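Box 3.1. Reading complex inputs
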Amino acid sequence: MTPVNVEHPDFLWRNPDPAPGYDVVVVGGGGHGLATAYYLARNHGIRRVAVLEKGWLAGGNMARNTTIIRSNYLWDESAAIYEHALKLWEGLEEDLGYPLLFSQRGVLNLAHTLQDVRETRRRVYANQLNGVDAEWLEPEQVAEVCPIVNTSPDVRHPVLGATYQPRAGIAKHDYVAWGFARRADEYGIDLIQDCEVTGLDIRGGRIVGVDTTRGRIATGKVALAAAGHTSVLAAMAGLRLPLQSHPLQALVSELLEPVHPTVVMSNAVHVYVSQAHKGELVMGAGIDSQNGYGQRGSFHIIERQMAAALELFPVFARAHLLRSWAGIVDTTPDASPIVGLTPVAGLYLNCGWGTGGFKATPGVGWCFAHTVAHDRPHPYNAPFTLERFTSGALVDEHGAAAVAH
Amino acid sequence: MQLIPCPWCGPREEAEYHYGGQAHIAYPEDPQGLTDEQWAQYVFFRDNPKGPFAERWLHNAGCRRWFNAVRDTATHRLLAVYRSGEPRPEVSSR
């Protein structure tokens, strides 16, 4: 056999050992952690930053989400931060100098009942008032946007209409992580893999360092961006959070011809579907109901998800399931995130994004970096405090968060 | 599909059950007397361990009775099931 060209391509980032200390330690090398590190350097000139990742970069939820990006949330607080994120997405390939396969192919949120129709029309009006592009489509318009959706009135859950956000879309999640990682690395930020945080060193109510499987690291600021494992980390600081970690499953089909031009989500039928650039149908559903950290879910969830997909898309009947997986999502009581300060000085929280954190990646990186740099929240994440669960100022997004975000 | 042993009915498929979250959360004896922080803890805050977790299940498609289980959230392994009102048994995840 003749040897093939085995020359390795250039690495996108170094693989450094941890230094004794940093100005900021970001815990979690997923999309949020990498974006936060990037904007700490880009927007605030803070470059003595380490991102600690217990596994490999972007190997958790960043590699497991269904890559849907949209900003059509109901409340002003949510619309502001998700729309901020969407605007950043629109310039992100240029900003990072890296292809992200960002494709604004629109999202349809289907309504199947009169209650759905009323609720989602209300959301369209709310979106329009907040400057978020949104429109209401009648069933025949749904069929124009996405001809493979079954809009027959004779099915179990007929499509009565849909909200449509044309600027919504998808991006390739791996590329997003690599784009942020490459730029962060260029700023001199250390991306440290295989480095699990085992303890938070707090003295006099202030964080002074972290213990890791690769030694102790001194730092005055620790930014948690660990999604499903946030509760485990927060417990090291004696903090109890209103989070529950659940498996969220997704799956892809084999590669198919382009048949699906947009993103379709359905709360009532309980599935969301898009088609990746390469050709796989990408589908997700709701969380597994029980708490779990196992990165795998129950088979009956997938079975119901496939039934739901077939109800909406009869054309998928002969598609083969290629693989399925699960990520661990941290859900909150009001389906909105927690981004801000904690009772421990120098310890910052970014968690509770539940099933919908991917779309927020640049937006939350921007706002969380601001929060860490200035020790106070950015206006866009100011409503998403931990205190809201005591004050009652919840941001209830269960409707817009949908079957999952 | 995972089998969950109902303390009354024996092992059944998990699709017969409904999940009820953390067990042993008692309604406060004097809700009016709680501070906002204490009330928030009761309403919104729950433990979320990676490891053994005492939780409630309802055998929805069977005897329709609630019971408690200790389950390891990292492995999904059920370590013990016991009837409502009984104390949490001592179990290890091994």
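In summary: The beta strands of chain B are 3-6, 10-13, 18-22, 52-58, 66-72, 78-83.
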